[in-house]
Amino acid sequence: MNDDGTGLLTIGELARATGLSVRTIRYWSDEDVLAPVTRSPGGYRLYDAASVARLELVRTLRELGLGLDDVRRVLAGERTVAEVAATHVAALDAQIRSLRVTRAVLSTIARRDSTAEETTLMNRLARLSAGERQRIMTEFVAQTLHGLDAVDPEVRERMHAITVEPADDPTPEEVDAWVELAEMIQDPDFRAQMRRAMEFNAADGASGRPDGRSLWFAKRLVEVAAPARERGIDPGSPEADAVLRDLFGDADRADVLDRMTVGFNERVARYRELIALVNRAPAPPHAEDFAWVVAALRAHADS
Predict the structure, then answer these.
(1) Which of 21, 64, 184, 246 has the greatest CB tally within 10 Å of its CB?
(2) DSSP state of 283
(3) What is the Rg, in whole angstroms, of the alpha carbon atoms belonging to the chain?
(4) Rounded to whole angstroms, what are the CA distances from 236 to 148, 250, 265, 272?
(5) Do 106 and 126 meet the contact criterion of CB atoms below 8 Å apart?
(6) What angle do CA 228, 246, 217 make, to 5 degrees?
(7) Number of C-alpha atoms within 13 angstroms, CB side, residue 227?
(8) DSSP run (H or E) holding 132
(9) CA atoms within 13 A on the CB side of 268
(10) DSSP 137-176
(11) 10 Å Cβ neighbour count for 194?
(12) Packing angle of the helix pair 172-185, 81-112 (nearest 10 deg)
C-alpha cells in the first residue's frame, strides 16, 4: 500500500496484490478497462481497493476468452456477465464445430495422401454451410427430374425429400462420404445416368401404369429375390432363371437389364450409401438383392 496514508495502491503494489504483471495492468489501464483512481504528484497511477476487485473480474473475463470490448461493456453496466457469456458460448460452439471439421479434413488428407488440388477441394466442400450443401442436392434433383412430369409421384416425392445434414462433429469417414457424394452428384456422367433412370420411370407413367408402381416393384423384387439369394442360389443357375420368370414374366430381358443397370447399379447403390453415411442414418436395405437380380439378368439375358 502506498505510504502516503491515502490507502491507494501504486501499479506495482496492485500487481503484487493480484499476481498480474505491471505490464498487463498498464496495458488494461491504457485501454480504459482499469482506469486509475487518481495520480500521484509525480504522475504515477494510483488505484483503490475497488480497483483490486475490478481487476480480478477483468482477469476472469479475459481468461474466459472475452475481448476487451465485451469486458468494457460489462464493467460499464451496458451488458450483464450472463449476456456476454451466452454470446461467447455461441461463438465458442461455432469455433468448436469448425475445429472438428478441420480435424476430420486433416485426418482424411493424411489417410488419403491427398494432392494439393484434392486437399483444396476437400476443405472447400467440407466447409460448405448447410444451405450450400442442400442447394447442391436440390439442384441435382431438379436437373434429374426436369420436364419429366410422368415420373411416379412417390419417387418424385422421395427424391425431393433427400436432405444432406452432416453432424457438427463429423468423423473423417463422414467427411470422406460428403466429399465423395458432392463430387458424385456434380459428375455429368452420374447425372446423365440418374436422368436416364427417371426417363425410364416417366415412360412407364406415360404408358398409363399406376402411381406407386416403382415402390411396388421394389417391394416385389425383394420378396422374390431375397429368399433366393439367401438360399445361396447362383445368379447363373437355372433356379435363378425361374426367379427371373417369376419377377418379369415374358418381358424382354435385355430391356429389363438396361433399366435395372441404370437404376440399381453399384454407383447408385453407393450414392444411397453415402447419403446414409453423411446423415448418420441406417444403411439402405436390400442393395444385395438388387445386385443379385442384375447379375441373374446378365447371366440369362438370352433366355
Answers:
(1) 184
(2) P
(3) 33
(4) 36, 18, 18, 27
(5) no
(6) 90
(7) 10
(8) helix 130-145
(9) 21
(10) HHHHHHHHHTT-TTS-HHHHHHHHT------SS--HHHHH
(11) 23
(12) 70
Sequence letter at residue 291: A
For residue 273, which of 259, 258, 291 has the smallest C-alpha distance? 291
Q: How far is CA 99 from CA 166, 230, 263, in A?
A: 15, 45, 39
The backbone region for 100, taken as left when phi is positive above 0, alpha when psi lies in -120 to 50, beta otherwise, is: alpha
State whether the Cα torsion 69-75-78-82 is positive or negative: positive
Q: Which of 100, 109, 28 is nearest to 62 (CA)?
A: 28
Report d(CA 204, CA 275) in Å as an integer: 27
Model confidence pLDDT, tens digit, residues 45-66: 899 888 888 888 888 888 888 8
Find the distance separating the first CA and the last CA of the chain, reported in whole Å: 104
| Helix boundaries (H) for 146-286 | 153-160, 172-185, 188-206, 213-230, 238-248, 253-263, 266-278
Name the grid cell of 81: 456477465
Which grid cell is 243? 426367379
CA 235 to chain CA centroid, nearest Å: 39
Q: Which residue's entry shows cell 416393384?
A: 217
In single-letter form, the type of residue at position 229 comes to R
Q: Please give the Cα distance from 169 to 147 (Å, whole number).
A: 39
Element (H, E) at 10: strand 9-10
C-alpha cell at 290: 438388387
For residue range 18-42, what is the model confidence (pLDDT) as tens digits? 888 999 999 988 888 888 889 888 8
Half-sphere exposure at residue 132, Cβ-oriented, CA atoms within 13 angstroms: 8
